[in-house]
Structures are given as C-alpha cells and as structure tokens.
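Bug: token stream looks shifted between consecutive jobs. Job 1:
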Amino acid sequence: MAGKPRVLVVDDSAVIRQVLSKIIEADPDLELLGVAGDPILARRRMEKTWPDVIVLDVEMPRMDGLTFLREIMAEHPTPVVMCSTLTQHGADTTMQALAAGAVEAIGKPKVDPRGGLQEASAPFLAAVKAAAGAQVKRQAGPAAARSAVPSTPAPATRQQAGTGRILALGASTGGTNALETVLSALPATAPGLVIVQHMPAGFTTAFAARLDRASALEVREAADGDQVRPGRALIAPGDRHMRIKRRGPGYQVTVGDGPLVSRHRPSVDVLFQSVAKEARDQAMGVIMTGMGDDGVNGLDEMRRAGAPTLAQDEATCVVYGMPREAVNRGAAVETVPLTGIPERLLAFAMANGSRTTT
C-alpha cells in the first residue's frame, strides 16, 4: 500500500474510540482514517475512503461486528482486527470472526475513569501493524489438507499410550485458521502436538475448543503437568509460557508466568527451545504464518539438535514474517505450503530410526 496504513475504528464505546484514536494518532507509522459508533456509520465513512485496516468491536447496536465482518469479506476483503471483551461469549464470537476472515484478535484495553490506558498500547499497535501487512484472501479449507493425508490411519484411540515423537508448531497472525487446516487433517494416531498461537489470555480456551470440534485429535488448552501423548494437541494458554519436560519415557508440559520473550507470552521461542533440549531429534518443528521473528531462535536450536524443521511458504501465509526470518537465518531446512504440512508431519511420525547431529 502507498503511504501509511489508514485505520478505521468501529466501536460503540466513546471511551474506547477515544483511547484507540489517541494510540493510533501517536504512532508515526499509522494514520487514523476515522471512527464510527456502529457498522452503519462505518459504512457511510467507507463510501468516501476505504480503510487499509478496520478495528472492529464484536457487540454493537444496529449490527453486530460479526455480521459486518462477513459483509466486508464478501464485498471487499480487508484486514480486520477484532476487539473483544474477555468474556466467554466474547471469546466464542471472536473465534467465529477469525474463522470468517479476521486476521487478529485483541482484548479491549482497560481504561480508568479519565480515559487513560491501564496497560501498554504495544499489543494493540502490533496487532494493527500485523494486520496492515496481511494477505487477505480465500484460504484453502481444511478439506484440502485432509486429502493429503492417509484416509484410513491405523486403528487407535484418543487415550492411546506411548511416547514416540513430538510435533511442535508456532504461529501468530493468520495462525488460527492455518492451525485448523493442519490439525483437521491429522488422524487420532498422530504424535502428541504442542502449539503456541499468539493470542490474548481468555481466548485460548475457546480456540482450543474450536480445534477440538474440527479435528479427530483431542485438543485442549494446556494446564501445568498435562501429558504429551499421541492423539492430543496442547495449546499454550494466553499470557503463559509453555515448555515441555521429559518425565520418564514421555513428556509433560509446564505452564507458567515469566517475562516476555521475543516480545511475546506465550513465546514460540520458549516452547521450541525446551523441545530442542528435551526431545532433540525425536521432534519436528514447524513455524507458520505471523509477523516478527518469534520462534526463529528456538527453531534453529531444534535444527541443531537434529530435529527436522519446516516453514510455511509465502504463498499460503497471511503474514510472511516469522517463516521468512526462519528461512533467511537457516533455521528452517524446508519450506512447505500449508496444505502440505500435515503430510510432512505424518511422514516424520512414521519414519523409522532417529536422526543424529554432528
């Protein structure tokens, strides 16, 4: 796009509109196109100038954000950041919005009675800037990836015991739909998966539930001490780091607080570094769509420990940031389209022997 990204804020709260406007206007890399109290008013504003990014409330009078989002994506696909209250209903609706094409989700900023921020504006600005660089287009659905994997996997149950290999995935902007594409294509016999998706606290429970419904795997938000086992995918909770730790013949996760790493919590780097240390060549690492470079250092540690490492290719990424950095720094030894990732994961799972590193 030419010039600075133009941002339209659509929210029925005058206080939120004021706060977000101030944050955008104070950033030299963004331009505030305008504000609107509901989608009807936003539509009138957009008839004059179409925004590059829309920050959209979930619940509003006259028309809700989800309905407006679907109209936008049908008429003129545009990067949309959903701004939601951290309630169960808000999280569930936000998951629907991400499935409908929104590229980012953030919690509404907390404000004091004078309208000041009680928390940093950095997460909001990062979400808007990531959205500004997003490729908003129709993505291949889960069925496309499902066709790439065996249709009749070996018999197994969700409670199948064993250790075997482990699959570690990291994603950010655009990752919610990309992860659904991958997980929905995996059979219940797949090795245990550990996943970091950059997402605010309060949203990851709903996200895990959505993936659980969409796949043959058991998908859950990770809790401290959960076992990593075949047929199970553990999602790092929002605002918590997740690591793996060897326990006897298998692995379990630890979930806890800690400083931001690579500007994130949960951090893909934190997870991948623990996988490199604990699982070495019995793990595979995949870095997927997202802005920035979180996960690249950890993926390189996995590579040096003997693990095969992949990056999602540019054509299928919503934001080709993290994968690009992984390729440029040599952390990812293979680049794969989104729909090819499940096949590569299963090929690793079925391979005999182990790799060694020199």
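Job 2, same session, no restart:
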Amino acid sequence: MPIIRHEIFIQAPIDICFDLARDVEIHTKTTTRTKEKAVGGVTQGLLEEGDHVTWEATHFGIKQKLTAKVTYLKKPTKFVDVMVKGAFHSFTHTHQFMEKEKGTIMVDIFEYKSPLGPLGVIADKLFLEKYMTEFIRSRAKALKKIAESSQ
C-alpha cells in the first residue's frame, strides 16, 4: 500500500491555507490538468466533516468519477477525506497544517490501495505512484500560489 507524503511551506496564515485546501472551487482551479469538477454532493464552498463530494476528472485519458467523504476535521490543523466510491480499491488523504513563523507548512499524506490485486501492485511500481505523487505536488504548488497571492 503506497504512502505518498508531500510537504510545502506557504507564506500565508494557517487559516487561509486550511480553508483554501478544503474549498471546492479552489480544488477545481488547482487541478486544471485533469479537468476536475465537482458533480455531486457538495459542489461549492468549504467542505466540512461529514460532507461528500463527487469529482469528475480525466486521468490517463479516461473520464472518471470518484466520491470522497470528509471523515475528520479539526480547524485549522487537519482534515481527512476517504474515497467511498471510485477507481481505487481505497484511499485516505490526510491534510495537515502547522503554523510557522511567517507562514504555514502544509503536509499531504496520501495512502492508497490500487484495484486489481497483483496487477495493481505492478501498476503502482510502473507508473501510478509517480503519477499520484506529481498530482499531489502540482496541486500543492498551485494552492501555494493562490494563498501567497492573496497576501
């Protein structure tokens, strides 16, 4: 079960970073490469504990839908979303925020299990883990740019 951990420093207050990370419209703006959009559940505004959102996106040239639920939220330091329906066998995405002098450290921890048993493990090694790592990095960089430009 791969675990991807990404950390980035953002020169913006923790409250701003936390809210941007759970804002549905901002998520769409930070995932333009995969054309993500919310098509079910909460489709705008800030996600709260218990909320569901269904994302439609294009990955590997295939349009897919994925539904996630926010299972834990503690403002402004942490929230967790878990896939309840989608292409993965399972995933848990933990978003952590730590206040530092002159900004915030945002940490993404993405734990997932690919579908298709042994074939999924091979896919992880060949391309999926690298793809997901780049997806998380790219989104974090875009979120950083938005947060820092709002200062």
